[in-house]
Every structure is written in structure tokens, then in C-alpha cells.
Amino acid sequence: MRVIGVGDNVVDKYMYKRIMYPGGNALNFSVYAKQLGVEAAYLGVFGDDKAANHIIHTLNDLEIDISHCRQHSGENGFAAVDLVDGDRVFIGGNDGGVQNSHPIILTQEDLNYIQTFELAHSSIYSGMEGELHKLKETGIRVSFDFSTDYNESVLNEVCPHVDISLLSCGQLQTNEIKDLLTLVCSLGSSMAIGTMGSRGAMVFNGTNFFEQKPHYVKPVDTLGAGDSFFTAFILEYLKGKKIKVNEDQLIKQSLEAGAKFAAQTCLVDGAFGFGIEF
């Protein structure tokens, strides 16, 4: 199996300890897939500062293919993280850095390359809503992380071009989550996944709802928990589809795989470690 993250990368700058860690939804997906034993690649936009160089070196060390990435002069994307009443919270950033002035425009060469993978994963922070139809037209599966930044307009634009939609729903009640996931599938996605923080996750496959409780651990850092949950879930699901596992059983075992891996991620600083001083 081969998968690719297409879109955002950042460094998460932990202001209270002056350490920065590689991250970003699309990049995290690629790294977690590699950790789970799957061949993974990443396509995104780097700056040329210390943060960008650290991310590039990290991905090279992890043997993740970045041969189709772009690099431009300027500041790499970063998010600032601080400690507020004992919880790590995002307090700002630079809105993607050079990715803003040099957004990803997928060329035919890119698409020929992407077509060699089984799934491409992107996110709302990648600035790629207008490019998703190109991914869909390659014929491979496309997944997309909306995080909490979704509304009806965004869902209407994106869902027709996305097979698997991931949404952060910790702020919603159970009935609201079910309504949201139903809407997402009605707009074109074949599967919708809502992560609910400490309440776990919910999946709707267009027919049935499935729920998963989290694996409880004493977390070191919850950053990346949602990304790692989704990565383990979708890889388990894709593997099961190959051998024609019963759909309901497959979703249940994929949810369990996601919960297990997310718990492991919570025991690591940053999304997946590799911190350096800044």
C-alpha cells in the first residue's frame, strides 16, 4: 500500500519551552502512515528558514518521499502553542507562511505521480479546495480533514470531491454530530468521521453509525491525536477492503486501530517528536 499527504506542513512552536516540532495535518498523515509500516509520501510547500530545513531533514530521516515538494524563499508555516491552565492551546501562527503566497497548483506531472498511490489526504489548512477535483479525477481515494473550520458553504464545495471526510466535533452534541455526518455523506462523501475528543469518535458510512470510545492514557501531549487516529483507521480500513472483510466488522476494527494508535501518540511530545530549540 502507498499513501500520500498533499497540503499543509508547519512547525508547532511551543512558546513556553522554546521547542518546535514538525507537524501539519497532511504531513502528520504521511509520517503516521510510515510509522504504521506503509509506504508514504508528502507533497507540500516549504520555506527556506530553519523550520523548513528541520522538517525536510526529518522527512528525509524517516524516508518519506518528498520529491514533488516545492520550496520557496520565505518563512515556513508555523503554529504557536502555549500552556494555559495546564492545557496546550494554539495561540497564533503565520497562516501557512510561504504556502499562502505559493499555493499548491497540481500539474499533470503531479497528478501522474499521485495516481500511483491508493489514497491522497489533504486538509482545510492546505488551501487546496480548488484543486481537490483534480485529485478526485485521478481515480484514487481522497480524504480530507475539515478540523473545526467548516460551515455549510465549505462542505458544499468540498464534499463532492472527497471520499472520506474527517471533522472535529468535540463541541457538538451526539444528535448534532449525527446530523452533520449525514449531511456530509448526502453531499458526496461515502464516509464521514467525527472525532469527539475525550468522547471518542463516530463514523457514518451512509447507512449505519458506529461509535468508538478512546483508549485512556495519561497524556504527555494530545497534539496529533486526531491525525493519528484517522491515519490508523483509514489504513486498517483500506487493508480490510482488499481482502473483502465484512463492512460493519471492518469499520469496528478500524475504529479500534485508530483509538489504539491515537493513545500511543498522546505519549509523545509534539505530533511525533523531533523537537529542536528555536
Please describe what this structure looks like:
With 278 residues, this protein is α/β, with parallel strands linked by helices. It has one domain: 3-Layer(aba) Sandwich (UDP-N-acetylmuramoyl-L-alanine:D-glutamate ligase). Helices cover 35% and strands 25% of the residues. It is built from 9 helices and 15 strands. The strands form 3 sheets. Strands 4-1-9-10-11-12-13-14 form an 8-stranded mixed beta sheet, with helices on both faces. A 5-stranded mixed beta sheet has the order 8-7-2-3-15. A two-stranded parallel ribbon has the order 5-6. Strand 12 and strand 13 form a beta hairpin. Helix 1 crosses helix 8 and helix 8 packs antiparallel against helix 9. The longest helix is centred in the last third of the chain and has 19 residues. It starts with a strand and ends with a strand. 45% of the residues are buried. The model has no long low-confidence stretch (mean pLDDT 97).
Core attributes:
alpha/beta; 5-stranded mixed sheet; 9 helices; single chain; globular
Brief description of this entry?
This protein is 35% helix and 25% strand. It is of the alpha/beta class.
